[in-house]
Amino acid sequence: MNIAGLAKNIVDNLRALSLDLAKTDIETALLVANSYGKTLSANYIGILSDNEFEFQLSEYFSELLINRRHQADYDILHLVTTGYASGGHTRVVERFLNAGTGDGIASLDPLPIDVINELPTNVKLFNGVKQPTGLATISKILDIGLKFKSVILHIHPDDILSTIAGILLAKLDVKLFMYNHADHMFSFGYGAAERIFEISKYGWMLGEMREIKHKQSYVGIPAPEINIINNSHKNNKKVHIFMAGNSNKFKPWGSYSVPDFINQVYENDFLRDKVKFSLCGPTGREYYWKELKAENLDNVEFLGLQHHKKFIELLSESDCYIDSFPQGNGTAFVESIMLNIPSFGLNLLAGSSYADLLRSNSTSEIINSLVDYINNKDLIKNNLINVRKNIITEQSIENCSNRLTLSMKKETFLIPDYLASMNYVPFFHERLWKDSGRIIIDYDLLSKLSLSNKLKLIKCWSNISYCNYNSLLTYLATRIKCIFQNLLNHITT
After folding, report:
1. Counting beta carbons within 10 angstroms of the beta carbon of residue 364, is it exposed (0 to 12), middle (13 to 18) or buried (19 or more)?
2. Contact 396, 219 (CB under 8 A)
3. At what angle do helices 258-267 and 363-375 cross, to 10 degrees?
4. Residues paired with residue 280 on neighbouring β-strands, in sequence order
5. Domain co-membership, 293 together with 360
6. In Å, how far are 43, 184, 246, 424 from 427, measured between CA atoms?
7. Pick from 420, 436, 463: which residue ends a domain?
8. Which of 29, 88, 274, 302 could be 21's S-S partner, Cβ–Cβ 3.0 to 4.6 Å?
9. In the chain, what's the furthest Cα-to-Cα distance?
10. Residues 6+ apart with CB under 8 A from 311
């Protein structure tokens, strides 16, 4: 049996265990359901939704509907699993709210202060609504959601609590929608939402597999109209190349390797003494950087994750931007162009922005473009300005907000032709995962279960030989360390 078949056995076991536990132990059933979603979103086996499972599990919470009525005081609530100060997903919610598209935001986990500071002061904030139990959390979301006419899900793929709450809210006549942040992977939430707001060609093309084709409407990723940076004031001794993306997006796949790319840049006679790199996201401690040649290390700065304001500040100081690969970014690439910074990247996953027209077919093309840019920095100016104008037209916060509100009123927006015609690698993430040769397992769940349920869970992982032993060993080492630390604390007190 191949790796996809083995992983399919594991997720089938988790699914069955969750539904079986729901009959007697609903809290553990929710924990296993969360792990089921997490395992599916981490292992690309061709299952992109499970609407039947969502509805089946939600039936065990029907009693929460009793004596609850929909009495809306406000219009739109954005429901978030977790907000982040870094990355692009939370920026989407901030931008909609600042454009007046939404009256409230509810977040299961507490929002970072940097995110709260970006929200309009008139917005209703329900911060950190997660309760000690899954049942209480679902109940809390219901109480909040019933104050609004509509709820838009911005949830993590494994967020079964918000999904079940959404199903119940829909039964109480709250309009439920989903902004498809998880365009390329499995996610809960597709079943009950009456409309799915799409952001990319990749997500649009997977509509049929998700059984949501009739519910899709293109909204897009809102891009802020950032003030243009005047590049002439920069006095960098070398051309400062900025790259960004979380560390997983830099993880090499086949011939697509950032460490190898940087080595090739410094092997180029023209570029060798003219450029330096700053990388936002990776720490430099990731295993794949061992491929970076020692003599090139002095020209590469690792910045780790940065909150969004700091990211924009660092990006503004650079001379040009290269998007992370093999996996790129939906927002950072656009933001660099909006800052008028020459931007380069690969088109493996093009189709989320007009900006993707600037992407290249290969790393050698990027190197050639860098040479051309350094030789004549005005060469790409007209093209960059033209692309920027089209981003403003197609992806302005105002236009994305209009598409969102009209989609909520049953109007349908098809994926634009310019996105539909862009290059992308079909089933890119599935191929990336299969080539890894590993099944990713949610070992953290073990610590949350009773001994008898631990044994049931381990039985679900019947193909453990294909799983990531390092993750298991790390988990076991952490647990043993905690046990000894607790014993030591007990002895000393």
Report:
1. exposed
2. no
3. 40
4. 244, 304
5. yes
6. 13, 9, 21, 9
7. 420
8. 29
9. 75
10. 86, 244, 280, 332
Residue 159's contacts (CB-CB under 8 Å, 6 or more residues apart) are 34, 37, 81, 108, 188, 189
Look up residue 245 and give its two tokens.
């993306």
Convert the pLDDT of each residue in 287-306 to its tens digit. 999 999 999 999 999 999 99
CB burial string 447-474: b at 16+ within 10 A, e below:
eebeeebeebbeebbebeebbeeeeeee
pLDDT of the residue at 381:
78
**CA atoms of 329 and 268, how far apart (whole Å):** 27
Q: Are 390 and 225 in contact (CB under 8 A)?
A: no
Task: Give the per-residue pLDDT at 479.
Answer: 59
Whose tokens are 């609903």? That residue is: 26
Q: For residue 436, what are the domain limits?
A: 3-44+428-492
DSSP state letters, 446-489: GGGS-HHHHHHHHHH-TTGGGB-HHHHHHHHHHHHHHHHHHHHH
Query: Mean pLDDT for the chain?
Result: 91
Cα 301 from Cα 297, distance rounded (Å): 8
CA 306 to the chain's CA centroid: 16
* Chain mean position to CA 187: 11
Does one domain contain both 236 and 380? Answer: yes
Q: Are residues 433 and 348 in the same domain?
A: no
pLDDT tops 60 at residue 174 = yes
Domains of the chain: total: 3
Whether the CB-CB separation of 397 and 95 falls below 8 Å is answered with: yes
Residues 73 and 150 in one domain: yes
Do 9 and 463 form a contact (C-beta atoms < 8 A)? yes
Whole-angstrom CA distances from 371 to 265, 266, 271, 278 are 10, 12, 7, 18
Q: Determine phi and psi for 369, rounding to 5 degrees.
A: -65, -35
Q: Tell me, yes or no, whether 76 lies in a domain.
A: yes
**Cα gap 81→58, rounded to integer Å:** 18
Confidence of residue 380 (pLDDT cuts 50, 70, 90): confident
End-to-end CA distance of the chain: 54
Do the domain assignments include residue 31? yes
Cβ(334)–Cβ(391) under 8 Å? yes
Q: Which tokens is 89 given?
A: 């997903």
Summarize pLDDT for 338-354 with one digit per residue, the tens: 999 999 999 998 898 99
Say whether both 373 and 454 belong to one domain: no
